[in-house]
Amino acid sequence: MNSWAQVAIPPVAIRFSFPELNLFDTALKSVHTIAKKDKYRIYVCGITPYDATHLGHANTYLAFDLINRYLKAMGSEVLFVQNITDIDDPLLERANRDGIDWRDLATSQIDLFRSDMVALHILPPDHYIGAVEAMPLVIDAITSLESAGTVYQVKSDYYFKVRSDSDFGRRSHLSESQMLEIFSQRGGDPQREGKQDPLDALLWLAQRPNEPGWESRYGVGRPGWHIECCAIALGYLDIDPRDNTSIDIQGGGSDLIFPHHEMSAAQGKAINGKEFAASYIHAGMIGLDGEKMSKSKGNLVFVSKLLHEGVDPMAIRIALMSHHYRQDHMWQESDLTAAQEFLSNLQIALSRMEVAPTDGVIDQIISALSQDIDTPRALKSIQSWIIETNKGGSGGKPGELSRAIDALLGIAI
Ligand code: ZN
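^ thats the input. predicted complex w/ zinc ion below
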């Protein structure tokens, strides 16, 4: 699958130093330091293409864009992989409801997602992989799980034994009853007769009437969602056998912590014999009018709609960055208005001949980002600089600040 257009990253002047990045890790339940490496491997779960791109999606991809930008600015290489779940129950249900072919629905939503990402200045993944194109990889991953003795059959479908991973549940910190409840809310089938454990994860679903299917040694069918991500991550992230974990960062929205990321991690560990990811990083949820923004509630605010109304995509970026990426929050018009005003003031300040000193504010932006991507603090530092500039401050280098803001925060002026 084609990724989207490359986004240029201007250089940050080399005299600025970058401390190691600290991020809150869901599995550790604390902020920890991402050890300096020459190359990082990041996997971020992509969309199911039937409802792209609402602000919850935008918040997640923005968070990992900022992490990607910071690690690159440190001088490291980042291999970034993202999937598209272009075959899954919700996609088929929506296509069926709307009387259109599931492939046409997926294609139109993927195109829309790409154009939203370009507008929001999100760095494209190095590999942007659909489940359909990854089918041979996914089937191989199931075969590896079978060789490890972790697969069994229920009628014509195949399941993964989650308890084969002694660490199962460690990453999401949920009680057994919480796991069962969430599993059942998020597409799991704990009640299915014949399962060895109610939480066991579907690996291969035999073809159902009027549904697509792919040939495999497990019969004609389609893969489960968790093995799809696990297989794409392991297949495209250039795994280094010397590393203690398969990948460095597994990322996504906090609604993926369980079951999706726990299951993918357990499967990844069964395949490679080592922990799947060194860090499990999650972005918060965006709500509207007191409720989580979700497809089922129908209270989605779409990026494309805002853009169509003439909203500057950089203002959407700033409005989202005015909250910490992990903080669940309600989307408010007032955040967008404030962001538009901030953007306009920044543009005016940066266009002045004389500006307040800029080294301090660039250092502050770097420092704020290094502390768990603290964008509200970074924006406050810029706001203070705008005030100093408007008061007649001088001695700064506006071009240098403009390039640093673009490189690190993705705000292109
Ligand atoms: Zn995923």
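Residues 174 and 213 are 34 Å apart (CA to CA).
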